[in-house]
Amino acid sequence: MADAGAFLTDNNRNRQRKDRFARYGVIAGGISVLLTLVLIFFYLLYVIVPVFAPARITPVQSFSIPLTQTAAVRVNEQNTHAFHFSSEGQISLVALSAREGQQAVTQQQAVMANPTSFAAALPNEHVFAYGDQSGGVTVVKPLIRQGKLMMSKPLTSSYIQLDTQGQPLVQLAVSVRRQVAALVGVTQDQRLVAKVFHRGSGLDTGEQAWQETQLAMPAIGHPVTDMVVTPDGRTVYVLNGRQVTVIDLRHTVGRIRQQTDVSQGAGDPVAMTALSGANSLLITGNDGKVTQWFEVVSTGQRQLIPARTFSADSGALHLVVPEYYRKGFLAVQDGGRLTGYYMADSPAPVLESRLFSQTPDLMAVSPRADRLLAISEQQWQLFKVSNPYPEVSFSSLWQKVWYEGYPEPDYVWQSTSGTDESEPKLSLIPVVFGTLKAAFYALCFAIPLALAGAIYTAYFMSSSMRKVVKPTIEIMEALPTVILGFLAGIWLAPIVENNLIGIVLSVLVLPLVMVAVGLGWAMLPGGWQRKMPTGLHILLLMPTLVLAGYLCFSLSPVVEQAYFGGDIRSYLTNNWGIGYDQRNALVVGIAMAFAVIPTIFTIAEDAIYSVPSHLSSGSLALGATPWQTLTRVVLLTASPGIFSAVMMGLGRAVGETMIVLMATGNTPIMDWNILEGLRTLSATIAIEMPESEVGSAHYRVLFLAAFVLFVFTFFFNTLAEIVRQRLREKYKSL
C-alpha cells in the first residue's frame, strides 16, 4: 500500500510539473505573439513617421564676396561651389566650403562683352545664354572638372545669330535637351525671334550635328515681361501685359495657340517662372500673390487655367525660386520670412522661417534641394534645408489634389513616370478603394455559398456524407493562392470575357432552379420521398444545377447575338457607357471566393454543428418545423461563430495578395463597376516595394500602405471579437 501511495504521489507531481510547463509555455507563446505584433506596429511607425516631419532650415555659413551685378546664381550637385553669372557677361566660380582666410572666388571667365540680355534655362538643364547688340547669342553650360571652371557648348556652336534685323536682344529664353533645343528672343522694338534645333536619335548622338530652323514669329501687341520655353522645344509662354500668349514652335511659322488673361481681375502680373518640366507656370502679381497655371485639354483643345493661388498673411511674396526636380518653390515674404510651398499640397506653406532682416537680391536652391544660397549685395548666406518629403502630407494622401494637366482635382496613385520631372501622385484612396472593392465582390460570392453550405452540411446532411464533404472543402484552403491567381488571370478571365451573358444568366437562373427543385420535391408523394435517404437530397440537386449552368452558357452566344449585336462588351461601352477590362472585379470575386469560402465554411459549420442537440430536439418536440428550428434556435445560438467566420473571411479577402496581383490588371481607378479593374494595398506593396528607393517618399508611403492594411485587419478582428462576445452574451440563455 505504501508503494502504491508513493507511485500515485509521483504521478501527481509529474502531472503538476507538466501542467505548469504547459501553462507557462502557452503564456510565453501568447506574450511572444503580442510582442511580435507590437514590434511590427512600431517598426512600421519608425519608417513612416519621418515622412511627416516638419521642414527645417538652419544657417551654415555667411561670407562677403566682391561680386556685383548678379544676374543669376546656381549651386552645383555636391554643394561645394556656386556659379555666379553677372549681367556684365562674366561667370565666376565661388567655393562654398572655403575656410576663413581662403579665396572664395577661385576662377572667373568672360563669356560675352557688354551683353544686353541674359537667360537661364530650367534649373536642371544648367544652361545659360547671353544676348548682344547685334542679335547674337552665346549659349554655355558651365562645369567643374578637376576643380576648374569649364565651359561646354550645349549646341554645335556657342555663338548663334538670331534674325533681329540689327536690333539688340533685350530678353531671352532658352532650353536645351539631348535631342531638341529652342532659343527665343525679344528685340528692342518688341519683336519675337526664335530658332529651334533638332538632331537625330542615333546610337551615337554625341557626334550628330544640330539642325537649326529659323521661325517667323507673330506679333503679340504688348511689351514682353517674361518668357518660358518648354523642354520639348514645342511651346513658348510669353507674359505680355496682363496676359500669357502661348505660341506653338513646331512649324516654321510660330502660331499663337492661346492668349489668356492671367490677372484674374486683380493686380497686374509682374513675373513668370516655370516649375520643373515647365508644365506649370508660377505667375507673380503686383499684389504679392503667386498663382499656378497649367494647360489642360477641354472640349478638344488645350487651355491654360489657374489651379491654386499662394499668398502670405504677413505680406507679399518675392523672389520665387523653383526647385530643380520637385514641384515646389521657395519665396520670401515682406519682412524677410522664408516660405516654401509644394504643388501637391494645399496652398498652405510647408516651410516657414524668419531668416532675413530684409529681402535678398537673389536666391538659389541646390539640385538636391538641401541647400539655399541667398545674396544681398556682396553678402552671401548659405543655409541647410531639411525638407525631404514635401510631396507627402495628409492632403496629398487622403484628399483630392489638382495635378498638372488634370482638368480637376482627383485621387490618383501614380508613383512612377517616364521622366524625373513628372509629378509624383501618391494618393492612397484609389488603392484603399480597390482593396475594399475586391473584398466586397469576393464576399458577395463567398458568403452566400459558404454559409449555405455550412448550414446544409451541419444541419441537414447525413453524417456519412459530411465526413467526406467537410474535409474536401477544408482541403481547398491548402491550395496556394498563386495557383488561384494564375488560373484566374490565364484561364478564368478569357472564359468570363467570352461568356459574360452566361455568367449573368447563371447568377439569375441557378437560384431559381434550386427553388424549383425544392418545390418539386415537396410535391412528390410521401412514398417517393422516403425512398431517398435523409441528407442525400443534394445528389438530386447537383446534376440539375450542372445542367442548368450548361444551358446558360449554351444560350450565351444566342442571347448576345439577338439582343446585343453579337458583342456585349462593345454594347455596354457604346450604349451604356460601361467599360470592360478582361481582368476585372468579377474575375477577382470568383477567384478570391474560392480562397475565402473554406475559411468561412469551416468556422461557420463548426459553430452550427456545435449547437447542443437538446436545443434542436426540444424545438422539434414542441412542434416547430426543421426550418423554424434552424432559423429561430440553431442560427441564433451559432450567430457568434457565424459572425466570426464572416469577419475572418473579410480579413482574408482584405489581405489577399497573389490573386488580386495576377487577376485584376492592377489599375488604380475608383469605380464600383464590377467589369472594371482595380488595385489593392497588398498588390501595390508587392509590385512596387522591390523597385522603390530605400528611404524615398515612395518607399515610406508603401510602408504607410502596409500600416493601413495592418490597421484594417486589427480593426476588423477587434470588431469581430466585440460583436461575437455580445452575441454570445445575448443568446447564452438558449
TrEMBL record:
Name of the molecule in the record: ABC transporter permease subunit
Query: What residues does the ABC transmembrane type-1 domain cover?
Result: 432-720
Subcellular localization, as worded in the UniProt entry: Cell membrane
**A Pfam family in this protein?**
BPD_transp_1
**Chief location of this protein?**
membrane
Organism, scientific name: Photobacterium arenosum
Which UniProt key words apply to this protein?
A: Membrane, Transmembrane, Transmembrane helix, Transport
Domain of life, per lineage: Bacteria
Cite the source lineage: Bacteria, Pseudomonadati, Pseudomonadota, Gammaproteobacteria, Vibrionales
For this chain, the family text in UniProt reads: Belongs to the binding-protein-dependent transport system permease family.
Q: How does it sit in the membrane?
A: Multi-pass membrane protein
What SUPFAM superfamilies does the annotation carry? C-terminal (heme d1) domain of cytochrome cd1-nitrite reductase, MetI-like
Residue spans crossing the bilayer: 21-46, 438-461, 473-494, 500-524, 536-556, 585-609, 630-650, 699-720
